[in-house]
Design goal:
The protein is of the alpha/beta class. It has 11 helices and 19 strands. Bound molecules: pyridoxal-5'-phosphate. Pyridoxal-5'-phosphate binds next to helix 9 and strand 10. The site of pyridoxal-5'-phosphate (PLP) has 11 residues, from helix 9 and strand 10.
């Protein structure tokens, strides 16, 4: 048979080596638990950074079906991807001058972080013959973006006079809401309420008022009650929590990172394993080479410390994790075969590996773990 008769290989026909299973049922279950916990407040689902790296569109589709009332994103590129779902899409952080026109045309809800931004949005709306829906962003203590609390009443009264703006919402953000009883967090809510009262005295009210993130939902019930009538949740949707603080919600992890066993060798005592030979076999050992490494999101800190699951058994990591491969001891799984599925993160039962476990090992927080799965890792929605 000549080469010309062979069918070209389609890249999508080749099974991927490493994949992240994302349980959409668990995701929507988490969403419903959050919604029930904060009701009658509504929930904005925060899908920044491509839904924390898991895939903005499929996650948003599932959440929309489950009744999510809108999506929060960080920037225009993310916003445009979600607009076709027909739900309100809101940029939560900042908007650059040259991004304003296209976003007003598209109907994305914009943050007003200062008076000049409000004026630019107003001018764009006038130029385009549109009304731009905006949420005023207050800096009540985050120190990142927004109108400073002490200036807010006056600045907002001036913003109110600009044409072409629908001041639908007002919001702020917490830096410490994981700390139950944090004074700053309570002070931020007091400031927010004072600003609302002062503005109400001038006839300025907002349909949507929000400050709670996942931390606050778990640690500050006050942030989910009037005058606040929306919350913004991201990490709890994934079944994870900030490293510190209470875990009031009974949300479940949605992720399992899997790969396959690519080699099995019995190596003699004294063999050095991987870069730097940071591990040396004490005795003859059955060593497996697993097809995932730090390029896929395995923390380098798992080197010589963590384990992966093969056939339900924990297999200790031997030596340093490399870019594409990780060596493990197969002593606890004598029946392991090349091609076996390997669970790197997730799994069931006592040996299940959580995002929080990896975060603790890596000395980081769960957000960084969730956002750090590699590009070549296939996202599979199950
Ligand atoms: C403004 C804003 N609101 C809400 C969230 C959601 O935070 P979390 O994932 O902790 O719920 C974020 C995320 O960093 C944010 O920046």
């Amino acid at each position: 048979m000549g080469f010309a008769t062979l069918r070209p290989v389609n890249v999508n026909d080749i099974p991927r080596r490493v994949w992240l299973e994302i349980s959409l049922d668990t995701l929507t279950g988490n969403y419903r638990k959050i919604a029930a916990a904060v009701a009658p407040a509504n929930v904005f689902t925060v899908l920044k950074a491509n839904a924390y790296g898991l895939g903005g569109l499929p996650i948003a589709q599932a959440l929309a079906k489950a009744g999510a009332s809108g999506f929060g994103v960080a920037e225009p590129y993310e916003a445009l991807q979600l607009l076709p779902l027909g739900k309100p899409v809101q940029i939560l952080s900042s908007i650059l001058p040259d991004e304003i026109g296209p976003m007003v045309v598209a109907g994305v809800i914009l943050p007003v972080t200062d008076f000049p931004t409000a004026r630019l949005i107003s001018e764009a709306a006038a130029r385009l013959g549109k009304t731009a829906t905006v949420h005023i962003k207050l800096d009540t203590g985050m120190g990142r973006l927004g109108i400073l609390a002490k200036e807010a009443p006056l600045v907002i009264r001036h913003i109110r006079l600009l044409p072409g703006l629908h001041l639908e919402g007002i919001f702020s953000h917490f830096p410490f809401a994981y700390e139950t009883g944090s004074e700053l967090t309570n002070h931020q809510m007091d400031l927010f309420c004072t600003i609302l009262d002062e503005l109400a005295g001038h006839g300025i009210t907002f349909e949507k008022r929000h400050i709670a993130n996942s931390d606050a939902i778990n640690n500050f019930p006050r942030a989910c009650r009037p005058p606040f009538n929306y919350v913004r949740t991201g990490i709890n949707l994934h079944g994870s929590f900030d490293s510190a603080g209470k875990r009031t919600l009974n949300v479940k992890p949605i992720l399992t990172l899997k790969t396959r066993l690519t080699a099995i060798r019995t190596l003699p005592a004294g063999t050095g394993i991987g870069y730097g030979h940071t591990y040396r076999l004490h005795r003859k050992t059955r060593v497996g080479t697993v097809s995932a490494g730090y390029a896929d999101g395995l923390p380098l800190a798992l080197s010589n410390r963590g384990y992966l699951l093969i056939r339900g058994s924990p297999c200790p990591v031997l030596g340093r994790i490399s870019m594409d491969y990780t060596a493990v001891s197969l002593e606890s799984v004598p029946d392991a075969q090349i091609g076996d599925e390997v669970v790197c993160l997730g799994g069931e039962g006592v040996h299940a590996l959580t995002v929080e476990d990896w975060a603790a090992l890596k000395n980081t927080h769960p957000y960084e773990i969730i956002c750090s799965f590699g590009n070549r890792v296939e996202r599979r929605y199950v």
